[in-house]
From TrEMBL:
One of its GO terms (biological process) is response to antibiotic. This is Lipooligosaccharide transport system ATP-binding protein. GO terms for cellular component: plasma membrane. It comes from Pseudonocardia oroxyli. Gene3D superfamilies: P-loop containing nucleotide triphosphate hydrolases. The keyword Hydrolase does not apply.
């Protein structure tokens, strides 16, 4: 597509409608080769609709989209052959062994049996599943199944890996092991696009990301850049007795922004300890005080709100 840029994925004015409902409302996105790019947003923000268009399984309603330098409307099958897709829910074949899940999937891409057999061995080692190669999928833990799903998505040596909520439902140990595997892929130059609800995951893995809300992009940048732009260096968390109203008016002069939550008050400040000393000097006595660094979660909640979206 002339003029669409040099990225592996380039979207200009991209829209997706379902009848009268517009799920994606004219977004602009460019993902560079070798980059890990994230889509963050509450439920209904348009992340999944965007990912399905990039994966060439849902046609765009309007705008321009280029994936791997090709138009999904005209060359969807050729693009899909170069993609690795990790769906939100594992869709492994439970009737097959771990190794067979890799080998049978590889045959869908027209790869030779010899090549697929060798590739399966590499991917079993990558996923730390070599010792479970002959086990049935049902016998695997959730973390093992997730690693196998990611390994399967790599069987065709994809140019672009799409991961939809890759660590949802995993325990902390399994999440960190999966992060280590994805970071290894990043070092090897595999371009990745990730949707996630975990802010720490986005901070760990993403070079750049966009925050979506209501079908539009409300912020874009690196995790550190977004924190610098939309939050403060530190946050002072104060807790007060449940039967007393927090003295918000007295706290306002000591912070760039004050946020009242049901169980605590957040003071967004450049220096948490200085702010804590100033609050104490003003005669405010909380039950407890905690100084922490600002996080991507602070940015996310400021941009999209704290109201639960079903």
């Amino acid at each position: 597509m002339p003029g669409m840029g040099e990225g592996l994925v380039v979207a200009r004015g991209l829209r997706k409608s379902f009848g009268a409902f517009e799920a994606v409302r004219g977004i602009e996105v460019e993902v560079a080769e070798g980059e890990v790019f994230g889509f963050l947003g509450p439920n209904g923000a348009g992340k999944s609709s965007t990912m399905r268009m990039i994966a060439c399984v849902s046609p765009r309603s309007a705008g321009e989209l280029s994936v791997l330098g090709r138009d999904p409307d005209r060359e969807g099958p050729r693009i899909r052959a170069r993609l690795g897709v990790v769906p939100q829910l594992d869709n492994l074949d439970i009737e097959l062994s771990v190794r067979e899940n890799l080998e049978v999937y590889g045959r869908y891409f027209g790869l030779s049996r010899r090549h697929v057999r060798a590739k399966a061995g590499e991917l079993l080692e990558f996923a730390r599943l070599t010792d479970r190669a002959d086990a049935k999928v049902d016998a695997l833990s959730g973390g093992m199944k997730r690693r196998l799903t990611i390994a399967r998505a790599l069987v065709n040596d994809p140019d672009l890996l799409l991961l939809d909520e890759p660590t949802t439902g995993l325990d902390p140990q399994a999440r960190h092991l999966l992060w280590e595997r994805l970071y290894r892929l990043k070092r090897e130059g595999v371009t990745q696009i990730i949707t996630t609800h975990y802010m720490d995951e986005a901070e760990q893995l993403c070079d750049r990301l966009v925050v979506m809300d209501g079908g539009v992009i409300v912020a874009e940048g690196s995790p550190a850049g977004l924190i610098e732009r939309w939050s403060t260096r530190e946050v002072l968390e104060l807790r007060f007795p449940s039967d007393a109203a927090p003295p918000v008016a007295e706290l306002q002069p000591h912070a760039e922004r004050v946020e009242l939550l049901p169980d605590r008050v957040l003071l967004y400040v450049p220096h948490g300890e200085r702010a804590q000393a100033a609050v104490h000097a003003a005669g405010v006595r909380p039950l407890s005080a905690l100084v922490r660094r600002s996080s991507l979660e602070d940015v996310f909640l400021r941009l999209t709100g704290r109201t639960l979206v079903d």
